[in-house]
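PROTEIN DESIGN WORKSHEET
SECTION A - STRUCTURE
LENGTH: 103
TOKENS:
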């Protein structure tokens, strides 16, 4: 005598397995995309940093190799005659007694 075996819905089980694997692959691919973006940004920053370093080095070398102008060759500042010696501004401080009484 044979007993009827319950039918297991194999289609529903396979759908659940494929759905989970699709979700899992989506999570993995989104993680890979984020990682690729982060690596790309790091590479871009590195390239920009190297370009700026080489530019800075070239400009510094260029400044150091240029002949420095002498003081006689520099034009005088506006409002100063060219024959006078440069005058340095002086600051005079006069202390005032706050408690000074009028006499």
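SECTION B - SEQUENCE
RESIDUE ASSIGNMENT:
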């Amino acid at each position: 005598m044979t007993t009827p075996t319950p039918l297991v819905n194999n289609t529903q089980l396979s759908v659940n397995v494929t759905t989970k694997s699709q979700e899992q692959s989506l999570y993995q691919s989104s993680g890979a995309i984020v990682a690729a973006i982060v690596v790309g940004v790091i590479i871009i920053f590195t390239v920009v940093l190297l370009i700026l370093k080489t530019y800075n080095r070239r400009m510094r070398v260029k400044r150091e190799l240029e002949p420095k102008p002498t003081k006689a060759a520099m034009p005088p500042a506006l409002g100063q005659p060219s024959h006078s010696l440069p005058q340095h501004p002086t600051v005079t401080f006069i202390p005032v007694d706050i408690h000074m009484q009028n006499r």
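SECTION C - NOTES
The first helix runs from residue 10 to 65.
The chain is about 55% helix and 0% strand.
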